[in-house]
């Protein structure tokens, strides 16, 4: 038996090493062959200007154009274009900016199609010379259109429209050999009308044109199938589903499905302009952000190596592998990388330190608790003990990422993709790659003889200081709750007193386009306008040397200042366009994001209630709400903009705060099932805080070093991003210890009926029985 254990460990190590090699080989292959698409802020892209047109029944006003924007956003999401910019310009124009589009003309064609879907009974063929597009409708709304083979059909007024459609998918029919087809699902009422129109058509004999049903898209018959002979007269095709067949290619079927599913445009649109645009950020800003990321990552790696020595160096190698895996995954899913996304990606490297720190701190505890420890056995025990905390914290984050991806749209959906990839790559890095490297190093004779170089042979100065003093931080939990409430009210009052300064993405603003006699560099224009009092202005090169300036709403005097500033740089200046633009983060997108975020928090609460206890889940989500209010309130007091960059920072803070609380509650759960479970709940919570505090400090330092580098060295746009995350990391660390924990104690005391004991000052000393489920989870 003694020989089999080392042999089993060797097999396990070889298996993990093989998995790690396969993952890294795949990541390297993808990274070398599939480049990541860069966003509008880093590279620019294609700009398409659409103009809405009035019809007999609908006027192309501002309201109709806003509805058009939302339909176009759905089509762009279906096309797979990430991080686009879509804004209303004036009352009847839509400006669409697409990063990294392979075929701009195809994108323009898809966006420009009205996609008015209608279903018509066929009255027969049109005899004689009729119009080959549309006959005079007359009182009954009849029309004449050619079918797929050119035969003109007389069509009755439409029985169904696109509003009756629930969804559409492109599928390949292998059984019948019909090739690609589009399956259309109708709403309940639409399904009944479909059954009625097919039932009436079935009353005519086979081969009669009246047995056909015409499906029309944008005034063109795309399919006019005959009702199958098996369908009885008057019965129709029930079930609310039909198939559109034809000689579709893969791309044509998918395009048709997305047009039908995305819905019809409320008014027709016409493409009036299409051109290439430059990056919204200058080369200097991109370079500064890149250098800040490199320096911050290097400082984080140095910190981990100083604290954990050899194990820290191996963890740094694993973190580099994490970066490569994440990059390859982003490339594989076709994600678009923006500058805030790049900063978040670098921050994720700092956050990925957390799993390694959890393992190493548990290994230190195991090393100190054993009489004749070895580095490898302590590491094995550390990985085993830390697994539940790593799994629970990552699962809660994955739940949020999945809901953001499936329910939200636009940049919030993109954030869900990046977040999910980061979490999965972090688990592979920590639980596979770090473990392989660490166990291999620990098994070397040189390391076995010198355990001090591993970095886990001692408990560390932070843990030693806490063990010596053993402070009872949770003696008076209500005082901590009062302090948290006071800070939250002080910060949150800024929302009421100062209000929120929403950025141009939320409020819209003004778009001015200039043509100058001397070509003006976008970087110079951006700096000059910032000096003139417009620090948030977005300047892009467009077309053949023109400049586009996008900023918040301006007075006439401010607009004149902008024009004069551009004229000083480019000589004689002509204003080509001056229009008010709508928000790029429209009302529908904001509603989707809030719905996805609310459901994500509810799902996290449910998961934590199942894995821990309901009071733990409630405490964690309450601490999260506390962090969000403080962060938003501080930005309100500082007068900082609430824009798309801040939204990304806020979502990151939410994930960080929940992770901190989960790690702490996992340790409380373990203590509840241990030999000290007869101690009071407050004592156990306090012990859990002291035991996890070294991990909290080291993980926080890893994130702070990167964020400080971004705040000091990066461009102004990233400075606000870094500031928001610095505040969020600090508040999240505080709230997990001094908000979530005291709240859990208070909720437990009330739930356990300990209020009478509290009047005597002993309410927090009530013993805590461990449930059978809790004992099973830890064993």
From TrEMBL:
**Keywords assigned by UniProt, alphabetized:** Cell membrane, Membrane, Protein transport, Translocation, Transmembrane, Transmembrane helix, Transport
Localization, per the record, is: Cell membrane
Region of interest: Disordered: 753-779
- List the InterPro entries hit by this protein, alphabetically: SecD, SecD/SecF_arch_bac, SecD/SecF_bac, SecD/SecF_CS, SecD_1st, SecD_SecF_C, SecD_SecF_C_bact, SecDF_P1_head
Every copy of the SecDF P1 head subdomain domain together lies at: 150-267
Q: Kindly give the membrane topology term recorded for this protein.
A: Multi-pass membrane protein
Membrane-spanning parts? 288-308, 315-335, 341-360, 381-408, 414-438, 480-500, 593-610, 615-638, 644-665, 697-715, 721-745
Per UniProt, residues of the Protein export membrane protein SecD/SecF C-terminal domain are 269-438, 567-748
Is the keyword Lipid metabolism in the record? no
Task: Cite a single Pfam family from the UniProt record.
Answer: SecDF_P1_head
UniProt key word Membrane? yes
Q: What is said about its interaction partners and assembly?
A: Forms a complex with SecF. Part of the essential Sec protein translocation apparatus which comprises SecA, SecYEG and auxiliary proteins SecDF. Other proteins may also be involved. Forms a complex with SecD. Part of the essential Sec protein translocation apparatus which comprises SecA, SecYEG and auxiliary proteins SecDF. Other proteins may also be involved.
Q: Which NCBIfam families does this one have?
A: 2A0604s01 (TIGR00916), PRK13024.1-3 (NF009583), secD (TIGR01129), transloc_SecF (TIGR00966)
HAMAP family attached to this UniProt entry: SecD_B, SecF_B
Q: Per its record, how is this protein called by name?
A: Multifunctional fusion protein
Identify the coding gene.
secD
